[in-house]
Specification:
Helix 13 crosses helix 15, helix 17 packs across helix 18 and helix 18 packs across helix 19. It is built from 20 helices and 16 strands. It is of the alpha/beta class. A 5-stranded parallel β-sheet has the order 2-1-3-4-5, with helices on both faces. It has a 5-stranded parallel β-sheet with strand order 7-10-13-6-14. The chain folds into 3 domains: about 130 residues, Rossmann fold; about 150 residues, Rossmann fold, CATH 3.40.50.300; about 140 residues, Helicase, Ruva Protein, domain 3.
């Protein structure tokens, strides 16, 4: 299940009694409270986990309350900061308001209900602003700012989490099956937040060559190994001041996991072949389709790295668990892939889309619509325009048709002839390019080879003109 994000209050004061008093009042209001005794420690906490409200003292050793406020408003502009001030320093409180503070409250708190009412008003303001922002961004997102589309409760919850997390530097672990849109979520978190103008670097950990992973992530110096004819900046350093997205992080070897953990702790990279360390400030997002909790229990993923990455989890539901979004997604893909053509989906075709279980999730649905648009010049997409496995309501490779197939297609012979004609037409259109044919048909290359052999489709079809098969 998607993880709920509590409303968090950070209390910053060098006096422990004040911190504990404020935490007691905050917790009585249902807030999750954190504490710090100086500005440096507070900034570290803000860097490690999401915080929505801060209550800070003005006069502290080291970093002052005003200096801390300026830093927060620069790094985390959406966090509300209120200041506590002793009698005689109202002038500083006014300066804090001009720097963007929510409000100020005098110390000592007398009566104590003054503090309780102050924090309640502050929390209500944060909640109202978040709800308004979420409603605005949901409207924008439904017009495909980042392709995260849907009205289902589970997708709306994901969008709400994105709205709340986009301006934090908190590590986020995005979980979900292949094709559910994990990178879309990471891009939305980055490009809709305060880091949008800074780099976003996506790394597919599963595709990195094991022997080259370290040099890819951390960079290398000239002469560090054979073929290193010049120095190269690593992906982590190229994402400095921005976001690095580690897709399929569960595929990293254990040795590389240890080095990634060290980077997260020290925020420094040392290129291969260099003795110098480089400071890097980057927000980490990671994604996986594996159960990392099970993986660390089996010893294939480091437990300490899991907890470092899993500060907040966004779990993306598979498409089969949000079928109400299928019509919205399908029509949005149609508008994007066939702009201005007015193409629609027939009721029979939509029933088939709704009945299918979509093992490839949203990515498979997009490929299905793209294939249908490419193969027809009609205004209505019907069952005959869908991959046969979807039209028959079955998984790829299954042999038994589901009850959801169209009554007009009940003959197995008719279906096989339709499948052969469709494959032959696509094979001709792509001039025998098997990889492209498989993509357009929405089937794997192995399945394509099997069906080409079964229907005796070969070079003669590939050499025909596009109009020879109708």
């Amino acid at each position: 299940m998607t993880q709920e994000l509590p409303m968090r209050l950070l209390i910053l004061d060098d006096e422990q009694t004040i911190r504990r008093l404020c935490m007691t009042v905050g917790e009585s209001l249902g807030l999750e409270c954190l504490e710090a005794e100086n500005g440096e420690a507070a900034l570290t906490l803000l860097d490690e986990q999401p915080v929505h409200m801060v209550l800070t003292d003005m006069v502290m050793p080291g970093m002052t309350g005003l200096e801390f406020l300026e830093q927060v408003k620069r790094l985390y502009p959406r966090i509300e900061v209120a200041v506590m001030t002793g009698h005689g320093s109202i002038e500083n409180a006014v300066r804090a308001m001009k720097l963007g503070a929510y409000d100020y409250i005098p110390k000592p708190f007398s009566p104590l209900d003054t503090l309780r009412m102050f924090l309640r008003r502050m929390a209500d303001k944060v909640r109202l602003e978040e709800e308004n922002l979420f409603l605005r961004e949901r409207s924008e997102t439904e017009t495909a700012v980042h392709g995260i589309i849907g009205n289902s409760a589970r997708i709306q919850h994901v969008l709400r989490l994105i709205s709340r997390l986009k301006d934090t530097r908190t590590p986020v672990l995005i979980q979900g099956e292949s094709g559910t849109g994990k990178e879309l979520v990471a891009r939305a978190l980055h490009f809709r937040g305060s880091l949008a103008k800074n780099p976003f670097v996506a790394v597919d950990c599963g595709s990195l060559v094991p022997t080259l992973i370290e040099s890819e992530l951390f960079g290398y110096e000239k002469g560090a190994f054979t073929g290193a004819i010049r120095s190269k900046q690593g992906l982590l350093q190229s994402a400095d001041k921005g976001t690095i997205f580690l897709d399929e992080v569960g595929e990293l070897p254990l040795e590389m996991q240890a080095k990634l953990l060290r980077f997260l702790q020290e925020k420094e990279v040392r290129p291969v072949g260099s003795n110098e360390k480089v400071k890097v400030e980057v927000r980490i997002m990671a994604a996986t389709n594996r159960d990392l909790e099970t993986a660390y229990k089996k010893g294939t993923f480091r437990k300490d790295l899991f907890f470092r990455l899993n500060v907040v989890t966004i779990a993306l539901p598979p498409l089969r668990e949000r079928r109400s979004d299928i019509p919205i997604l399908a029509n949005w893909f149609l508008e994007r892939l066939a702009p201005g053509r007015g193409v629609q989906i027939s009721s029979n075709a939509m029933k088939a889309l709704l009945a299918y279980d979509w093992p490839g999730n949203v990515r498979e649905l997009e490929n299905c619509i793209e294939r249908a648009v490419a193969l027809t010049d009609q205004r209505i997409l019907d069952l005959t325009d869908l991959p046969v496995s979807i039209a028959r309501g079955e998984f790829e490779g299954d042999s038994e048709p589901a009850d959801t197939r169209d009554p007009g297609m009940s003959s197995t012979a008719d279906l096989e002839e339709l499948e052969r004609a469709t494959i032959a037409r696509v094979f001709t259109q792509v001039k025998g390019d098997k990889a492209q044919a498989g993509k357009m048909l929405g089937i794997s290359r192995a399945t394509l080879y099997r069906k080409l052999k079964r229907y005796n489709i070969g070079p003669r079809e590939a050499s025909r003109g596009p109009s020879t098969l109708q």
